[in-house]
């Protein structure tokens, strides 16, 4: 398929990547974020967009920070701020606007990513873009929201960053992306010290392959990605790729008071990917597996 055709079909098919309430236990979590405000960076698409919807379901008001300001959630409890999170000043100005508009901030989710990936061929610009958008942006946002999070009600203050299987697993030609995801996991652990003493919990969620517009650039059809020779079955012992709302549910759990003693944790949402070794899902032949 031509790239332009593919992009158009992805855009017109956004419904494919939507939050699906029927899969979730969302009825039991309704109202748990009543009177709370969350900022979701990267909330216009994919996992971030599903996270906005889960926060809304659970009673929060949500500020979406995204390069893409053209987004309608059809809900008066959401406001979209068009911002480049890799610019420190943008982060600070937009956080001040959230305080003017909503009066407080309880939670920060950083779901922004630059997916461009290079290895031996990486230029100074490739490195700089990856590090600024994926890592420094998260740092800028944490710095900008911390003075407000610490004023929020106790046990209702959290930060969640999106790491990845690429944080810890080697993948072909993914140096620039993978290194930034590893750095985010390191940032989570470092930030537990300064944020912990202010009663702000900081964690991350590490997804494996999730059905999003980015993944669909390589696998336009869901049936293909979950076929016997596709990554859904080959890399996940649950036999499929994940859905955005399944990641959003984990992010919102970490923000909730039920996660009140979880701090400095990377929650794997990977359908078995993280547990698997080089043998994959295949039965292996070895001495202990025979009766003789
Ligand atoms: N999709 C997956 O399979 C997968 C797997 C592992 C980890 N992740 C991680 O999950 C997160 C979300 O992934 P996704 O697939 O939902 O992404 P996505 O591309 O659907 O959404 C990312 C959003 O970030 C916004 N954005 C990009 N650069 C920005 C910037 N400088 N400032 C503000 N906004 C910006 C984009 O406009 C977009 O709306 C990312 O951190 C990604 O690395 C995704």
Backbone structural class: alpha/beta
Query: How much of the polypeptide forms β-strand, as a percent range?
Result: 5-15%
Stretches where pLDDT is under 50 for at least 5 consecutive residues are: 1-12
Largest sheet: 7 strands, parallel
| Helical segment count | 9
Going across the major beta sheet, what is the strand order? 3-2-1-4-5-6-7
Average predicted confidence as pLDDT: 93
**Count of distinct strands:** 7
Element-level helix/strand string: HEHEEHEHEHEHHHHE
Distance between the termini: 52 Å
Provide the list of bound ligands, each named once: nicotinamide-adenine-dinucleotide
- Assembly type of the chains comes to single chain
Q: Specify Rg, calculated over alpha carbons.
A: 19 Å
Q: What is the general shape?
A: globular
**Helix content estimate:** 25-40%
Family: Belongs to the short-chain dehydrogenases/reductases (SDR) family.
Organism: Oikopleura dioica
Protein name: Oidioi.mRNA.OKI2018_I69.chr1.g573.t1.cds
Keywords: Oxidoreductase
Task: Report what the structure shows.
Pfam families: adh_short_C2 (PF13561). This is Oidioi.mRNA.OKI2018_I69.chr1.g573.t1.cds. Belongs to the short-chain dehydrogenases/reductases (SDR) family. InterPro entries: NAD(P)-bd_dom_sf (IPR036291), SDR_fam (IPR002347). It comes from Oikopleura dioica. With 292 residues, the chain is of the alpha/beta class. 38% of the residues lie in helices and 12% in strands. The chain is built from 9 helices and 7 strands; from the N terminus they run αβαββαβαβαβααααβ. The protein has helices at 3-12, 46-57, 88-102, 124-149, 175-196, 213-216, 222-225, 231-235, 244-255, and strands at 37-41, 61-66, 78-82, 107-110, 158-162, 201-207, 266-269. It has a 7-stranded parallel β-sheet, sandwiched between helices. β1 (37-41), α2 (46-57) and β2 form a beta-alpha-beta unit. α2 crosses α9, α3 packs parallel to α4 and α4 runs parallel beside α5 (175-196). The longest helix is centred in the middle third of the chain and has 26 residues, at 124-149. The chain is globular and about 65 Å long. The model is unreliable at 1-12 (pLDDT under 50). Residues 42, 44-48, 66-68, 83-86, 111-114, 133, 162, 164, 207, 209-210, 212-215 line the site of nicotinamide-adenine-dinucleotide.
């Amino acid at each position: 398929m031509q790239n332009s055709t593919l992009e158009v079909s992805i855009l017109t098919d956004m419904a494919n990547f939507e939050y699906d309430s029927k899969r979730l236990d969302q009825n039991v979590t309704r109202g748990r974020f009543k009177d709370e405000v969350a900022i979701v960076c990267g909330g216009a698409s994919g996992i971030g967009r599903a996270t906005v919807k889960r926060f809304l379901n659970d009673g929060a008001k949500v500020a979406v920070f995204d390069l893409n300001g053209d987004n309608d959630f059809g809900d008066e409890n959401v406001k979209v701020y068009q911002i480049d999170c890799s610019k420190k000043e943008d982060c600070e100005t937009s956080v001040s606007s959230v305080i003017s508009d909503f009066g407080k901030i309880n939670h920060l989710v950083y779901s922004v990513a630059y997916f461009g990936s290079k290895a031996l061929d990486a230029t100074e610009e490739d490195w700089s873009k990856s590090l600024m958008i994926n890592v420094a942006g998260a740092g800028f946002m944490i710095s900008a929201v911390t003075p407000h999070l610490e004023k929020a009600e106790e046990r209702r203050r959290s930060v969640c960053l999106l790491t990845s299987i690429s944080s810890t697993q080697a993948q072909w030609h993914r140096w620039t992306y993978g290194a930034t995801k590893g750095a985010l996991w390191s940032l989570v652990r470092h930030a537990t010290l300064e944020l912990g003493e202010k009663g702000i919990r900081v964690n991350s969620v590490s997804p494996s392959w999730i059905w999003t517009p980015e993944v669909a650039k390589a696998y336009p059809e869901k049936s293909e990605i979950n076929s016997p020779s596709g990554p859904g079955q080959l890399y996940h012992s649950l036999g499929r790729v994940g859905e955005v709302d399944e990641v959003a549910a984990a992010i919102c759990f970490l923000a909730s008071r039920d996660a009140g003693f979880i701090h400095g944790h990377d929650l794997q949402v990977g359908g078995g990917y993280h547990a698997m070794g080089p043998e994959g899902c295949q039965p292996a032949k070895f001495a202990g597996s025979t009766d003789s």
